[in-house]
C-alpha cells in the first residue's frame, strides 16, 4: 500500500518498521524534487531579471536576504511544530500533535502579517539597510514592496510543508510547493517581458505562486490521514511555544543568520568591489543562487531523513536512527563531491547563464564559485548532523551547528578577511566558514550518536533478559 493511501496509524507503523534506508529514500525523493524546483524558481527570478540590467540583478540579490528572513520564520514554526508532531505521533499521543499543528500554523500566519506590514511602513530605510546602492535602490523598493505582500502566505506555507513532511507525507508537501514553483517560472517571463512590468513582474510572479502554494497545502492537510488544521485546536500556551522554540531555534539560527550574512555580503561586496560598480554585488548574488540550488538537493535528502529520525527516536528505536544517519552522510558526501567538481570546472559558464553581458560579473562570480566548491562536500556531515540533532530535540547542540556556518564563522570572516585580501576576502569567506563549521559539527554529532548507541545497547540487553524470563 502506498503511504498516501494509509491512515494515520498505518503510516506510523510503516515509519517504524520499514527498512530505514529504504524509508529515507522514499521520503527523500519528493523532498529533493520540492527543494530543487523551489530553488530553481528562485534562480528563475535572477535569470529573467538579469536580462533587464546589472542593477536589477543586484536588487534581487539584495531582497533575497529578506526572503531568507521570511523563510527563517517559516522554518522556525514549521520545524518547531513538525519535530514535535513527529515525536508525538511516534509515541501515539495524537491530541497533542493536533494542537501543535494548529498552533504552529496560526502563529506563523500572524507573524507574517506583522512582518509584512512593518516592512512596508519602513520600505525605503529597509532597502538601504539591506545594502542597496543609490543606483540599485529604485529596483529594490519596487521588488521588495510586492514581495512583502505575500509574507503571511510564504511563511505559513513553509509551516504546512514541514508539518506534512514530518507526518511522512512528503509527496503531498511536494504537490503544493512544486505547483507554485512551476507557476512562478511560467509567470516570470509573462509579467517581466510580455506585460513589460520589469522587476515588479518578477516579484508579482513570486507572490502569486506563494498564495497558490498556500491554498494547495491547506487542501493537502485534508488527505492521506494527515492532521487537519482546525482553529479550535490553536493553543497559544507557553508549553507549545517552548516546544516550537526547542525544535525551531536551529532553523531560525541557520536561516536567520543566513539573512544577516547576505546583508553583510552585499555591504562588503559593494564596499570592497566599489571599483567595479554594482558588478560585485550582482556576481555574489548569482553565486549565492547557484550554491543554494546545489545545496537544495542536500537539504531535500536531509528532509527525507528527518521524519524517519523523529518518529523512530520518539519510539525509542535508536539503532534505526543511527543506520539512517550514516546512510545519508555517506551518499550525500559522494553526491556533493561530484557536484563540486562540476561546479569548479564549469564555474564561468554557470555565471554566464545569468549575466553574459558583464565581464566583471563573470570574472568575480566564477572565482567565488570555485572557492565555494573546494569545501562544499563537507556540508554532508554538517547538514545531516544539524537535522538529526534538531529532529531528536537536542536544541542547544543543533543550534550551535546551525549557527556555525553563517553566524559563528561567516560574520567574523566577512569583516576580517576583506580587510586583508580586499574583494578576494569576500569571495573566500564561505569556504573558510564551511571548514570551521565542519570542525564544530563532527564532535557534536558523534557525541549524540554515541549516546544513542549506549541507550540502544541497554535496551537490547533488557529485551534479551525479558525474552529469557519468558
From TrEMBL:
The keyword Ribosomal protein does not apply. It is found in: Cell membrane. InterPro entries: MATE_fam, MATE_MepA-like, MATE_MepA_subfamily, MdtK-like. It comes from the Bacteria. GO terms for cellular component: plasma membrane. The chain crosses the membrane at residues 21-44, 56-79, 100-123, 143-160, 172-193, 199-219, 324-346, 361-383, 395-417. CDD domains: MATE_MepA_like. Pfam families: MatE. NCBIfam families: matE (TIGR00797). This is Multidrug export protein MepA. It comes from Candidatus Acetatifactor stercoripullorum.
